[in-house]
Design a protein that fits this description.
Largest sheet: 5 strands, mixed
Protein name: Anti-sigma factor antagonist
Keywords: DNA-binding, Sigma factor, Transcription, Transcription regulation
Number of strands: 5
CATH architecture of the largest domain: 2-Layer Sandwich
Strand content: 5-15%
Family: Belongs to the anti-sigma-factor antagonist family.
Oligomer: single chain
Helix content: 40-55%
Pfam families: Sigma70_r2 (PF04542), Sigma70_r3 (PF04539), Sigma70_r4 (PF04545), STAS (PF01740)
Shape: elongated
Structural class: alpha/beta
GO molecular function, one term: anti-sigma factor antagonist activity
Strand order of the largest sheet: 4-3-2-1-5
Order of helices and strands: EEHEHEHEHHHHHHHHHHHH
CATH superfamily of the largest domain: STAS domain
């Protein structure tokens, strides 16, 4: 592995100087060093990259994540000394400003009192992964063990690695998912890593296991956390929008709007607005949640069935049919059903007998009922 790391404390911040290449095989060690600093309560870190020859896109994403982690804990993570190819990669990726490469020189030093980090020791005897776990797994997968002995060795390896798996799960503890669920998912990833580890590839188990466990955690968030079914491409786009919002907040010095995010991702405003709305699919609000008015819940504001809606068609049809009746029938119906008069009172108004009024009402109602029934359903 072509990587060197040294550490020094500058009072106001910690300096981590890196040399060599930062790529998929080496960035887990840099990440481990930085997480050790986070775990010890030190969140103001400058990473010196003047001696770094190459950095790949996956490592850039790791640095952005670590920067956000430091920021969440009230600190910062900045790069210093980025030049040549490394600087070009950061500028092309659009993260140069977010990682503070232009202001990092103020934190740089000559490294005269820097302490080298023993990467082999970090890898083999670190306090998070058990010592020589790679050797144990090599014996498990390549040794001539009987089934019972193999099962006992596998169980012992898994139990010794559980604390490391739980620590990886705790990185996602800021989510709304219960910590116990995340630890269980991490342990599932650990089992897959133990069973799928291939010693012949020359990869150390902590590196392989970390990738497998983190992948299992991300798969859990992708497939299990959404309370509604959301297509895969929309989930990925939602993650892109969230990452872009964090990057643009640092780059612009303000909270980005929909148009800013749309331009950054080459989308239109409507697509971004719809994707942002997907966030509510994680945890929909309960209908019993109180609104601004303390004594009113959401369900109290939902409309119910209007019994009059079923009569709209008949009322509109009846309006036309009434106009087709004789004028006297229309007047008598209006006095009876809109004026509320009795048949005797109507008879006095129109100058007819009560019996005659009753007959006109009956004939008019029969005519209206017959014509309404003839209307196609």
């Amino acid at each position: 592995m072509n990587l060197t790391i040294t550490r020094s404390n500058r009072g106001t911040h910690d300096m981590v100087r890196v040399g060599g290449c930062i790529d998929a095989s080496s960035v887990p060690y840099l990440r481990q060093v930085l997480f050790d600093l986070f775990d010890s309560g030190r969140h103001r870190i400058v990473v010196g990259v003047a001696e770094v020859r190459l950095i790949d896109a996956a490592s850039v994403r790791v640095l952005l994540y670590l920067r956000q982690r430091a920021k969440d804990d009230g600190g910062y993570l900045r790069l210093a000394g980025a030049t040549g190819t490394v600087r070009q990669v950061l500028e092309i990726a659009g993260v140069a400003k977010a990682l503070g490469i232009d202001g990092g020189a103020d934190f740089d030093d000559d490294g005269s009192d820097a302490i080298p980090v023993d990467l082999d020791g970090l890898r083999l005897t670190g306090r998070h992964w058990p010592a020589d776990v790679t050797g144990e797994l090599t014996r498990l997968h390549t040794g001539d063990l009987d089934p019972a002995a193999s099962a006992r060795m596998r169980d012992a390896i898994v139990r010794s690695c559980i604390p490391a798996a739980q620590r990886l799960a705790h990185r996602y503890s800021r989510s709304a998912e219960p910590a116990a669920d995340l630890e269980q998912v991490a342990c599932v990833g650990l089992l897959k890593a133990v069973d799928g580890f291939d010693p012949g590839r020359g990869t150390e188990f902590p590196v392989y296991a970390t990738t497998t466990i983190v992948g299992e955690l991300r798969r859990h968030f992708r497939d299990r956390v959404w309370s509604m079914h959301v297509p895969r491409h929309l989930q990925e786009l939602w993650l892109e929008v969230r990452r872009s919002r964090e990057e643009l907040t640092s780059a612009l010095g303000r909270s980005p709007g929909v148009q800013d995010i749309a331009e950054h991702l080459d989308l239109n405003d409507r697509q971004v607005a719809e994707v942002i709305g997907l966030g509510s699919s994680f945890r929909p609000l309960s209908l019993n949640v109180l609104t601004a008015a303390d004594d009113v819940t959401i369900i109290d504001q939902l409309g119910g069935n209007d019994p009059q809606l079923g009569h709209v068609e008949y009322r509109e049809s009846l309006r036309v049919l009434l106009a087709q009746l004789p004028a006297r029938s229309q007047r008598i119906l209006a006095l009876r059903y809109y004026g509320g008069l009795t048949q005797h009172e109507i008879a006095d108004h129109v100058g007819l007998s009560q019996m005659h009024v009753s007959r006109i009402l009956r004939q008019a109602l029969q005519t209206l009922r017959r014509r309404l029934e003839e209307i196609p359903g």
